Amino acid sequence: METTLVQPAIAVLLSSAIAIRAFKRNSLNLSGAFLGFIVMFIHIAVNYRLGAMLLVFFFTSSKLTKVGVERKRSIDADFKEGGQRNWIQVLSNSGIATLLVLIAWMMTRSQDKCLDSKESQLLTSLIGGVIGHYSCSMGTHGRQSLGYLPVRRGTNGGVTKAGLLAAAAAGSIIGLTFVLIGFFTTRCAYDVALKQQLVIPISALAGLCGSVIDSLLGATLQFSGFCSVRNKVSSTLFEIIMTR
């Protein structure tokens, strides 16, 4: 009984500390910190390796948000110090992955497993979905923060070679985390262990693809316009109309 409570207890303590710290540093607002605690708790309580991927994603993306902060402050009407992500942004970045984690838990009961489609195609797909989810999200953050490209005012979707490389590198960090933590939490047959290494280049590809898709959606579906009064780019049509 005590053993089964250790991991949830660690999850509560670690998730609480990180959520409070993120709130104090303005990385998350109150609603974001509350939902972030729940998401972190689920990941860590279910599987340390999946929890590690989430934490690497959170801390890395928070650091990337602070890159070029002066430029963002000067051109973005929606700029917030530290990011101040709300519950909607937390859900967007981790909602699908959290659902996959819960389904995986129902199959493994917190026992870490190697990726092996011969043993279980469904479990491999679920864990692969979690890896792909965070790799895509990391790739998007990497491109947005490190691959800045001046485009015509009021437009979205510009990309650079540096941004695409940053997206691939950021995605690979998730795969690298999965593989490295796996050395301590799983025992795989030699041939299966070798196949685990493929997660790293696949994660890099996922980061790149996620970034490109995000750019395409931004260029075709996301509205942004230039507010000549505030001299900033805004994603709110009403604000642009009212300041004219």
From TrEMBL:
One Pfam family, short name please?
DUF92
Q: Where in the cell is it found?
A: Membrane
Q: How does it sit in the membrane?
A: Multi-pass membrane protein
Q: Which controlled-vocabulary keywords does the entry list?
A: Membrane, Transmembrane, Transmembrane helix
GO cellular component, as recorded? membrane
* TM ranges: 6-23, 35-59, 87-108, 162-186, 198-221
Similarity field:
Belongs to the TMEM19 family.
Q: What is this protein called?
A: Uncharacterized protein
Q: Which organism is it from?
A: Camellia sinensis var. sinensis
